[in-house]
Fold this sequence. Notes:
Helix content: 55-70%
Distance between the termini: 31 Å
Number of domains: 1
Mean pLDDT: 95
Largest sheet: none
Structural class: mainly alpha
Shape: globular
Number of helices: 5
Radius of gyration: 12 Å
Amino acid sequence: MTSQTLLDQRALSKLRWRCRRGLLENDLFIERFFAQHGAALTVEHATGLEMLMDLSDNDLMDLFLARKSPEAALDRPDVHQVLSMVRNSKN
């Protein structure tokens, strides 16, 4: 499976479950993201999103709102791409 391979339904379902957050605002960003991009998510997107899900809710919100930029291990193209997709997701 390459990084550009689309996620199958099982992998997408697991990713959605992994993305559940304790902070409602983060959940709203994530729900809009999946509503707009879910059908076209790739393995690369999933990797970037999973890295973001390791953050605390407050750190994640700062990235979603562009109050901070990804640093250190998160300063990767897949993370930047997912953040851009999240920030540009519409209702």
